[in-house]
């Protein structure tokens, strides 16, 4: 039998750790003196102790060591832990790549201009944004398709320009309004009530265009052109309300972000 000090020396496990292993039931002493409470360990406990120390050196959690009694069970615990670590490292690598992509896209220059734009009628549909909805893009595509169909049924020609804008909904929710530009005004009585009708006025507007590659954009991260227009509006002391900002999807695949600065008299 070995005293706890001797056992600690032989296994390179601290006395404090041996006390803890005893408390959690991982490695109990072979004997405990009933009067002195001194712990003693058997030679047969050297093997499991050395295996435990080896696994703890690679950070295998204590809760995964309960079944380690020999080299075979130790190997199982080690391989399981290695697989878990590998999964964590891969997740960290993906997070690193994503963070690098965000930094690159936010660092790309955005073109800013002020321009005059003609009045533009549109038909729109509202989507409630739900963080738990994994089919957001699919729903948007379906709604845009429905807008095209509704415009054609009403005999007005879609111009091909699409935009989205955000606005506050009920109970602090956020709604997205999907808008399709059309070639002529629509009478409110001619359109299903599920759609919204409107017209952007003849106006002066500020526009930002992102000059980077659209394929480099990171899903779930604010578009750099949207960020830029909010920065420009705040710098100029203008409103940064969400519903003032339109993200315009151009027919050529480009993206502009615009907000009206001033409504102008019709030319």
From TrEMBL:
Coiled coil: none annotated. InterPro entries: DNA-bd_dom_put_sf, MerR-type_HTH_dom, MerR_fam, Reg_factor_effector_dom_sf. It holds the Pfam family MerR_1. Residues 1-71 form the HTH merR-type domain. This is DNA-binding transcriptional regulator, MerR family. Keywords: DNA-binding. PANTHER family: MERR FAMILY REGULATORY PROTEIN (PTHR30204:SF97), REDOX-CYCLING DRUG-SENSING TRANSCRIPTIONAL ACTIVATOR SOXR (PTHR30204). The keyword Membrane does not apply. The keyword Nucleus does not apply. One of its GO terms (molecular function) is DNA-binding transcription factor activity. It comes from the Bacteria.
